[in-house]
Design goal:
The protein has 79 residues and is an alpha+beta fold. A two-stranded parallel sheet has the order 1-2.
């Protein structure tokens, strides 16, 4: 199999950056996409990125060092 649908960054912390209506729209579109992929028997993969409290896994060289700073940059990452 050479085609897969990856579903990532659907954790509450990430989705909290969206307005409620936008969050609902993103979730609805993801659901439709996953249903379509599964109906065609495509591989579907859910990826959850998580950090321990204080984000020790995030490199000090990372431009976005915390979720609080991510809010400042959210327009770069989220439409």
């Amino acid at each position: 199999m050479s085609t897969a649908v990856l579903c990532c960054d659907f954790q509450p912390d990430i989705l909290s950056f969206l307005e409620p209506a936008a969050k609902d729209e993103v979730i609805a579109k993801a659901k439709l996409t996953l249903e379509a992929a599964r109906s065609k028997k495509l591989l579907t993969i859910f990826i959850r990125v998580a950090f321990r409290p204080g984000y020790p896994e995030v490199s000090p060289n990372n431009q976005v060092k915390s979720y609080n700073k991510l809010k400042k940059y959210q327009s770069k990452f989220l439409p």
